[in-house]
Amino acid sequence: MQGACLETLERVTEAIESYQRARDVFAYEHGHAHPRTATAMRNLSRARTHRFDFKVQWAPRAPTACPPSLVADAGKKKKKKGAKKGGKKKK
Questions:
Q1: How far is Cα 44 from Cα 39, in angstroms, rounded to an integer?
Q2: How far is CA 17 from the centre of its chain?
Q3: Is the residue at 46 inside a domain?
Q4: Mean pLDDT over each residue of the chain, to the nearest integer
Q5: Cα–Cα distance for residue pair 10/15, rounded to 1 Å
Q6: Count of domains in the chain?
Q7: What residues make up the domain containing 33?
């Protein structure tokens, strides 16, 4: 009963611990084939799957501006390495 309350409060880790204790007690007292032990095991498996039942929500991102260093260099022409300077040779 405590595990169900904890699971309702979304305290899943504590609920799993409670269900494990209940399963161990029922298995010791009644054996593995008893219906109460089976119920405790079913509750434990449900809580374990509930642990990974979460939703991922992505927040929309606003466009980011370009850094000023990239924008300032955009209009400049880059010189090729090894390019010859000047035009035709004069005789």
A1: 9
A2: 23
A3: yes
A4: 78
A5: 8
A6: 1
A7: 2-51
Contact criterion met (CB below 8 Å) for 26 and 37: yes
Q: Per the structure block, which two tokens stand in for 6?
A: 């904890």
The pLDDT, as a whole number, for residue 68 is 73
CA dihedral 17, 21, 26, 29 (to 10 degrees): 170
d(CA 40, CA 42): 5
The rounded distance, in Å, linking the Cα atoms of 3 and 14 is: 7
Do the domain assignments include residue 91? no
Please choose, from the candidates 41, 37, 39, 17, the residue with its C-alpha nearest in 3D space to the C-alpha of residue 29. Answer: 37
Q: Which two tokens stand for residue 57?
A: 């929500």
* Better-predicted residue by pLDDT, 50 or 35: 35
Q: Please give the share of the chain, as a percent, with pLDDT higher than 70.
A: 69
Question: Residue 62: in which H helix or E strand, if any?
Answer: none
